[in-house]
Design brief:
With 418 residues, the chain is an all-alpha fold. It has a single domain (3-417), classed as Na+/H+ antiporter like fold (Up-down Bundle). The chain is 71% helix and 0% strand. It has 14 helices and no strands. It has helices at 3-25, 32-44, 59-80, 91-115, 120-129, 155-185, 194-226, 242-256, 261-275, 281-309, 318-339, 347-355, 361-371, 380-417. Helix 5 packs antiparallel against helix 13 and helix 7 runs antiparallel to helix 8 (242-256). The radius of gyration is 21 Å and the shape is globular.
């Protein structure tokens, strides 16, 4: 048996499991990502001729693989949302983005600086990569399939899905802040980079991302639903892979224009959704993206488990483990509660939204991306160990509890209605 034979066998088994497991695990204290993570650990502990997995040495492939998974999940999230964007309609989302996300980043950075004794740039990088929410790793906290009713979404699922759709893009300015600080001051502190960072990384790139995404989304919406020629009107042919083309087009064009492609992809999806909200073609697009996302997520989590089995956490210190646990159990929940203070959500819903800020594939992408731009003084393997342990703990904690918690919350809401 060769290494390639084993890879093909595991790919086939993994694809079949990815199709079956979501329905088997629905509502149970187990999740698809957790199963594949454990499979990766278990398989790589066996004496099999499998290729070595090391995102530190293979930084560039890691960056691009996780990049593809993130942009596909962003398109899927945008296509699933029924509620049109608006200041009031998305009020919970703006609170999570404007208060919870920067607060999580800042407090995490302060903890890394104090407990891990990391220099300011490395501490800020840890805060930045652990700031974005990634509900792709717990399907129970995401909205379901698109419908023609904009009120057909509970606030908890909507808040977490829309937050993840936008903060995966907005984590870029935070990451660039860490890169700028490291370039300007090395292991120290400097404020010289802040002016150019605000002008370019925050204002310009965010504006380009939103505007390009909106423009392409409206153009694609016209092409999907409104062009007069039935031959060119893509909704007539009901081909789901068109969503993949829209994803890569939006991302590529925006990056070429110097904007944030992650932000553009989500905005494009929302604009396509708004073009003809009640059309059944949205379900075709969403279902295709969900299937691709599920396959890629399963593969990445399997590889992450392999990395753990091969010693990926060997550089983890007790301080790093404590930092990860505090981020998940204290910093994100309290930052989420602060952001949702006096929001329309009830106490139970508020705690669920605050607690289920899942850390996942986006964190791995941002770390790989930043590591290719700048040296952060802290050994790379220590950085990877802390982030990997945080993702691992999040997959276990949230994967085990999300199903039962959301099921109970739905039951309590149903009881209040009756």
């Amino acid at each position: 048996m060769t290494s390639a034979d084993a890879v093909f066998a595991w790919l086939g088994a993994g694809a079949l499991l990815a199709a079956v497991l979501p329905r088997v695990l629905a509502g149970r204290p187990l999740s698809l990502p957790l199963v594949f993570l454990l499979c990766g650990i278990g398989v790589y502990l066996l004496p099999l001729p499998l290729p070595a997995i090391d995102p530190v040495d293979d930084r560039l492939p890691t960056e691009h693989v996780t990049e593809v998974v993130v942009i596909i999940s962003l398109m899927g999230a945008g296509l699933a949302l029924n509620r049109p964007p608006g200041l009031r309609r998305w009020g919970t989302t703006w609170r999570l983005l404007g208060v919870t996300m920067p607060l999580t980043c800042l407090v995490t950075a302060l903890m890394a600086w104090w407990l891990l004794d990391w220099p300011p740039a490395a501490a800020l990088l840890l805060g930045a990569v652990l700031a974005p929410t990634d509900p792709v790793l717990a399907a129970e906290v995401r909205v379901g399939e698109p419908t023609d009713d904009e009120h057909d979404e509970d606030e908890v699922r909507f808040a977490l899905t829309s937050e993840a759709g936008l903060n995966d893009g907005l984590a870029f300015p935070l990451t660039y802040a860490a890169v700028g600080l490291a370039a300007a001051a090395g292991s120290g502190w400097s404020a010289e980079w802040i002016g150019s960072w605000v002008a370019h990384e925050v204002a310009y790139k965010c504006a380009v991302g939103v505007l390009t995404g909106l423009l392409l989304g409206r153009l694609l919406g016209w092409l999907f639903f409104r062009v007069r020629s039935r031959t060119l009107r893509l909704s007539q042919h009901r081909e789901g892979f068109v969503a993949l083309g829209a994803t890569f087009l939006s991302y590529g064009v925006t990056e070429l224009a110097g904007g944030y492609g992650f932000l553009a992809v989500f905005v494009t999806a929302c604009a396509v959704r708004a073009a003809e909200r009640a059309h059944g073609y949205h379900n075709v697009l969403h279902d295709f993206m969900e299937q691709v996302e599920r396959l890629l997520t399963a593969a990445v989590l399997f590889l992450l488990g392999a990395f753990v089995a091969l010693g990926g956490l060997s550089a983890l210190t007790w301080q790093g483990a404590v930092t990860a646990c505090v981020v998940l159990l204290v910093i994100r929940p309290l930052s989420g509660w602060a952001g949702l203070w006096r929001s329309p959500l009830g106490p139970r819903e508020r705690w669920v939204v605050a607690t289920y800020g899942i850390r996942g594939i986006g964190s791995l992408y941002y770390l790989a991306y930043a590591a290719g731009l700048q040296d952060f003084v802290v050994p790379e393997r220590e950085l990877w160990a802390v982030v990997t342990f945080t993702v691992l703990a999040s997959v276990v904690l949230h994967g085990v509890t999300a199903g039962p918690v959301i099921t109970r919350l739905d039951r309590l809401r149903g009881a209040r209605r009756t």
